[in-house]
Amino acid sequence: MTDRAFTSASFYQFLDEHKLMGTRCKACGALHLPPRPICTACHGEEMEWQAMPQRGKLAAFTTVHIAPTAMIEAGYGRDNPYCAGIVQLEGGPAVSAQILGVDATHPEQIAVGTPLHVAFVERGGGEEKHTYLAFEPDED
Amino acid sequence: MSNKLNRGAAIVGAGMSKFGAFPELTTRDLFVQAFREMRASVDKGFDPRDIEALYIGNFSSDLFEGQGHTAPIMADWVGLTPRPATRVEDACASSGVALRQGLIAIAAGLYDIVLVGGIEKMTNLPTERVTDTLATAGDTLYEIPAGFTFPGFYAAMATSYMDRYGATPETFMQVGLKNHENGALNDKAQFGASIRQVMAQKVARAQAKGRPVPTWADEMDFLHDDRANPVIAWPMRLFDCSPISDGAAAVLLVAEEMAKSYTDDPIYVTGSGQASDAGLHDRPDLTSIGAARFAGQRAYEMAGVRPDDIKVAEVHDCFTIAEIMAIEDLGFFPAGRGYRAAEEGLTARTGSKPVNTSGGLKSKGHPVGASGAGQVIEIWKQMRSEAGARQVSGDVDLALTHNVGGTGQTCVVHIYERR
C-alpha cells in the first residue's frame, strides 16, 4: 500500500478502497491533499503516504442547479440540486468534495462550519463506475 | 527582478466586435470585425503590414468549436502571415495575459508594433457542455469530481464571504443591477438593458404571447423571483452570472517612442502584474483571490501609483461576488468592505470609484478568451473621453484592468496612463 506512486491514479485507487490518503513531506512534515510528489512548502522530494483526518468542517459550499454532464448522469439537475463544498480537515489540509446528507433545496439552512466526516460516493455505471470523495454531517 | 519595463509601450488603437450570441459567425468573423474597428480607431491611420507579431488570447476554441491552433488562422484572416502568431491560454485571463506578452515583447526590444487580440465562440454548444468546457479551467482531477461548476466555485467563495463579513445574496444583486445600468449604455453589450428594462421586456413578451403577465414590485422583487431569476449555484442566481457569449477584441500596442506617430492621444501601459495560484481548496482565504492581490501589487509598483489614484477600473465580474472580491483585492476598499461600497453606490458610474462602466462581463458579455482584451477597449474609450453616455466625469488619467483566469489560478492586472 505504501509504495504506490504519488499520482492521481493512486489517490483514486485508495478512494476505491474507501481510504482518504494524502502525502506527508519527510523533510518538513507538511501534509498534502491531493497527494503531491513535491512539497509545496519546502520543495522536498521525499514523500510518504499518510491517512488523512476523517473529520472536518464545511469551509464553503454551494448547491448546484445547473449541473455538469457527469452530475446530470448521476441524476442531478435543475430540480434536483446537489451540494458541493470545501472541507477543512481537522489538523490537516482542505479538500473539495460532494456534501451528502444536507438538503440542497434549502441552502440557506446549510451552514459554514458544520462538522462533517468522510463518506464515499459511487458515480457512473459499468466501466465508468468510480468512487468519489464525499463528506456528510455528523449525527447529532 | 527589477519589475520595470526596459522600454514603455502604448495603445494606439482598440476595437471589438459586439458581444453576444451569433449563430452565423465564427471566431474568425468576429476577430475580423474587431480588427477593422481597431484599424479605424487609429487616429493618424496605419498600414497593417507594420504589425510585426500577434498575441491572441483564446481559452478553448478546441472544445467550443472543434478548432485548435487559432492564432495563425487569425493572422491569415487579417492578412498578416508570415508574422509570428501565438495563442495565449490562461482560461478567462487569456487575452489579459496576451496583452502582457505583447508588452514584454516590446519592452524586450524584439518588436515595435504588435497586435494583441482575444477571441471566443461559446454559443455553439448546449449549456451543459459549455458548463463542462468551462470546468476544464478548474482542476478536473481534484475539484470537478466534487461537483463544482464555475458558478459553483464562485458561489462557494460567496458563502465564505457571507459567513465572514455578513454580506447577503441581496448584496451581490446590487452588483448586477449596477452593471446592467452601465451595459444599457453600451451598444456592444450582450445585454444592453437595465434590470428594469429586462422586466419590461418580459412583461411585453408575456402580453404578446397571451401568457399570464408577471408583476414585480421592483427590481429586487424581480431578482428574488425563482422563475425570472433562477438559482444557478446558490447563492449565485442567473443575474449574478455572466452570460455565455461570442466575441473578439483587438488592441494595437506600439513602442512608447513611436506612439505619437499614430495618435496625439495614446494610452500608455505603465503597470503590469501577473500571478498564479493553486486550486481553491488549497488557499488559506476563500474570501479573496490571492493572485489578484499579488498581481495588483506588482502592477501598482511598476506604475508607481496607488489604488486611490485609479479613476476607472474594469474588473473581472464573471460573477457578482467576483466584483466584490476584486475591488477589495485591488485595494480600492478594505477587506470585508467591498459589499458595503457596492450597496452605497461608490462603484457606480457616478460614484467615487467607477467600476465596470462598460457593463462588465455581467452585462457586456463574457466570451472568455476575449474578455481581457475587451476590458481594454472600455479603458481606451473612457481615457480618451469617447465613452458617450457612459463617460465618467473628470479627467481619467489613470485606469486599471483586472482579468482573472479560472477561480483565480491566474490573475493579470494592467495600469494605463494618459499623459
CATH architecture of the largest domain in chain A: Beta Barrel
Q: Describe the biggest sheet of chain A?
A: 5 strands, mixed, barrel
The CA-CA distance between the termini of chain A, in Å, is 34 Å
- Helix and strand string of chain A, N-terminal first? HEEEEHEEEE
CATH topology descriptor of the largest domain in chain A: OB fold (Dihydrolipoamide Acetyltransferase, E2P)
For the termini of chain B, the CA-CA separation is 27 Å
Largest interface: A-B, 37 and 38 residues
Strand tally of chain B: 11
Question: How many structural domains can be distinguished in the coordinates of chain A?
Answer: 2
Q: Mind telling me the CATH class of the largest domain in chain A?
A: Mainly Beta
How large is the count of helical segments of chain B? 14
Rounded average pLDDT of chain B:
97
Q: Averaging pLDDT over every residue of chain A, what do you get? A: 95
Strand order of the biggest β-sheet of chain A: 4-5-6-8-7
| SSE sequence of chain B, one letter per element | EHEHHEHEHHHHHEEEEHEHHHHEE
Q: DSSP helix count of chain A?
A: 2
| Class from secondary-structure proportions of chain B | alpha/beta
Radius of gyration of chain B: 20 Å
Largest sheet of chain B: 9 strands, mixed
